[in-house]
Specification:
Blueprint: H1 2-21, E1 51-61, E2 74-85, E3 88-94, H2 100-103, E4 107-118, E5 120-126, H3 140-152, H4 158-174, E6 177-183, H5 188-200, E7 204-207, E8 210-211, H6 227-241, E9 247-253, H7 261-273, E10 278-283, H8 287-296, H9 302-308, E11 316-320, H10 326-334, E12 338-341, H11 343-348, H12 356-361, E13 365-368, H13 380-392, H14 400-414, E14 432-435, H15 441-449, H16 453-463, E15 469-474, E16 477-481
Parallel strand pairs: 1-4, 5-6, 6-7, 7-9, 8-9, 9-10, 10-11, 11-12, 12-13
Antiparallel strand pairs: 1-2, 2-3, 4-14, 14-15, 15-16
Helix pairs in contact: 4-5, 5-6, 13-16, 14-16, 15-16
Bound molecules: zinc ion.
Zinc ion binds near residues 126, 282, 319, 371 and 374.
Length: about 475
C-alpha cells in the first residue's frame, strides 16, 4: 500500500539518523510565530480552505517500542511537516519533501522549535471527582465513603454536572489530552452533561452511566433502584449518544463490591448483545478490596469474578489491576482486555505498585490513566513521571520512548480507538499536542545539557506538566493555548 510504503521507506530510514543528529541539538529557541503571537490562529480562513500545514518537530509511534526501545517503533522528523485536510492527517514527513500540492492554499501553523505529538489519551478518569482531588489521609474504601460519594451525590443537579464536565474537559485539554475514558456518576443526567460538553469541543471520548446497586458498599442515595431500571436507563443513553459524532458509550459498572450478581449478569449480557460498546470498571486496586471481593463472590481472584459474568473481552478496560497474578494476566490477554495503569492514584491512595513489565510479558495491552480524583494530576506527563517511579521502586525502568508510546498510541490501543487516533498515520484524526522544551527554567536548563533526543524526552516526561503544553489541537483546530509568558 502506498501509505505503508511511505512510512516504511521514508520515516524509518530518517529516524535513526535524526536521533543521532539531534544528539547535540540545543534546547529549541521559541519561535516568533508561536502561540503568543497568533492567539487567533484558528479564526475562519476567508478563502474557505480546509487544508493546514503544521511545522514542528514531529514524533509519533507506529508500535510499542518495548524494552529496551526499538527505534523502528517510532518516526521522528525534527524539521517536519504535518498536512491536515478536513481534520484528518493526509501527509507527514520532512519539510524538504513537502510538495506544492500540500501547501497550495493551506493555512500555516508554525510550531518550529517545539515538539508536536499525537494528543494524549487518558484511559481512566472521573469527571465527577473534580472536587475530590487532593483529599487527605485515606485508602480506597474509606476514601470513597468520606470524599467521593458525597461529591458524586451533587450530580443529580444538571447545572452542577455541566459545570464540572466543562471544567474537567478544559483542564484535560490544557494538559494536552484529547481523548479520555471517563466515569460520570450513577445519575443519567451526568452522562448527558459530559457528552454534551465533549461534543461542544468535538472530542473523541468514552463515557457511560455508573452502575451500582449493592448494599452496603453503594450508598442508598447513589444506588440503582433495580437492575431492570439500570438497564433501561443505559439503553436510553446508548440510543442518544453512542456513535454520535466522536462519542462512544462505555458500560460502566463501578466495581465488584457495589455490584450484585444480577447487575453483573445484566452487564455481561448487554456486552454480548452489543459488541460495539465499550466497558470500563475498576479491578484489584487495593489489597483489602481484593480480599473483600474474593469473599463476596467466593472467587479465586478479582479478575475471575468479572470473567464469570462475561465482562472480559475487546473494548473492556480495567483500571488499576495492581494486585493480579499470572493467571489473571493470561486471561486478560487471551480475551483482548486492557488495563488502565494509574500511577499517581496508586501512589496517592497507597494502593500498590503496578507490574508493567509483567503485563507486557503476558501481552496485555496497557494505557495510562490519570484517575482524577484519586490521581493527583490531569497531566499525562506527570502521570509518566510517577509511572517511572513506580517501576523504579520495583527495580525496573520505563524509557521515555515507551512512556510516550503509552501516552499516545498505547492509550488509543487500550481503548481500541487506534483506527481513529493515537498517531499521525494518514487517515487518522488530527488531534495533537504541542510541547515546549523550554517551558520552565528547570526544563530549559536540563534540555540544553541533554546529549540525546531520548534524554530530552525523558526530561520532558519527568519535569513537564501543563506548563509544557504550548497548544492543543482537536481535529486540526486549536482548542487550547498556553497563556503568553513574558
Ligand atoms: Zn477510578
Amino acid at each position: 500500500m502506498g501509505r505503508r510504503h511511505f512510512l516504511a521507506g521514508l520515516g524509518l530510514a530518517a529516524t535513526a539518523d535524526l536521533m543521532t543528529s539531534m544528539a547535540t541539538a540545543n534546547a529549541s529557541p521559541r519561535q516568533p510565530t508561536d502561540r503568543a503571537a497568533d492567539p487567533d490562529a484558528d479564526a475562519a480562513d476567508p478563502s474557505g480552505c480546509d487544508r493546514t500545514v503544521v511545522y514542528g518537530c514531529l514524533l509519533h509511534f507506529l508500535d510499542d517500542p518495548g524494552d529496551p526501545p526499538a527505534e523502528q517503533a517510532w518516526e521522528l522528523f525534527e524539521d517536519g511537516a504535518l498536512v491536515i485536510e478536513n481534520g484528518k492527517v493526509v501527509w507527514l514527513g520532512p519539510v524538504q519533501r513537502l510538495s506544492d500540492q500540500h501547501t497550495a492554499d493551506a493555512k500555516v501553523i508554525d510550531h518550529r522549535g517545539q515538539l508536536v505529538l499525537p494528543g494524549f489519551v487518558d484511559t481512566h478518569a472521573h469527571y465527577s471527582q473534580v472536587d475530590v482531588i487532593a483529599s487527605y489521609g485515606e485508602q480506597l474504601p474509606q476514601w470513597l465513603d468520606k470524599y467521593v460519594y458525597p461529591a458524586e451525590s451533587r450530580f443529580d443537579q444538571p447545572r452542577h454536572a455541566e459545570l464540572m464536565a466543562s471544567f474537567f474537559l478544559d483542564r484535560m485539554l490544557a494538559a494536552g489530552t484529547t481523548t479520555a475514558s471517563v466515569f460520570p456518576t450513577v445519575h443519567a443526567n451526568s452522562v448527558d452533561a459530559f457528552f454534551a460538553e465533549a461534543e461542544r469541543r468535538n472530542l473523541r471520548v468514552l463515557c457511560g452511566k455508573v452502575l451500582m446497586d449493592r448494599e452496603p458498599h453503594a450508598p442508598s442515595h447513589l444506588r440503582d433502584l433495580s437492575v431492570a431500571q439500570a438497564r433501561e436507563q443505559t439503553l436510553d443513553l446508548i440510543a442518544r449518544w453512542h456513535g454520535r459524532g466522536r462519542l462512544g458509550y462505555s458500560i460502566t459498572p463501578r466495581f465488584a463490591p457495589t455490584s450484585t450478581e444480577q447487575l453483573l449478569q445484566m452487564v455481561g449480557q448487554l456486552r454480548q448483545e452489543r459488541p460495539d460498546l465499550w466497558l470500563q470498571t475498576h479491578a484489584a486496586e487495593n489489597r483489602a478490596e481484593v480480599d473483600l471481593v474474593r469473599t463476596m463472590f467466593n472467587a479465586r481472584s478479582y479478575i475471575d469474578v468479572y470473567d464469570r459474568f462475561g465482562l472480559l473481552g475487546p473494548r473492556s478496560v480495567f483500571a488499576h489491576c495492581v494486585h493480579i497474578d499470572d493467571q489473571d494476566r493470561t486471561r486478560l490477554a487471551a480475551t483482548h482486555s486492557s488495563i488502565a495503569h494509574c500511577p499517581t492514584s496508586n501512589l496517592f491512595l497507597g494502593s500498590g505498585l503496578f507490574q508493567l513489565a509483567e503485563a507486557r510479558g503476558a501481552r496485555v495491552q496497557v494505557g495510562l490513566g490519570t484517575d482524577i480524583g484519586g490521581g493527583t494530576s490531569y497531566s499525562l506527563l506527570q502521570t509518566l513521571n510517577e509511572a517511572y517511579k513506580v517501576q523504579a521502586l520495583q527495580g525496573k525502568r520505563l524509557s521515555a520512548a515507551r512512556g510516550f508510546y503509552l501516552a499516545t498510541l498505547g492509550g488509543a490501543r487500550t481503548l481500541q480507538l487506534d483506527q481513529q487516533i493515537g498517531n499521525f498515520q494518514p487517515g487518522k484524526e488530527a488531534d495533537f499536542v504541542v510541547l515546549d522544551w523550554a517551558a520552565t527554567p528547570v526544563l530549559a536548563r536540563r534540555t540544553e545539557v541533554a546529549t540525546s533526543f531520548q534524554e530530552r524526552l525523558f526530561a520532558l516526561m519527568t519535569l513537564g506538566d501543563e506548563r509544557a503544553v504550548a497548544a492543543t489541537y482537536v481535529m486540526g483546530k486549536r482548542h487550547h493555548s498556553a497563556p503568553a509568558r513574558s
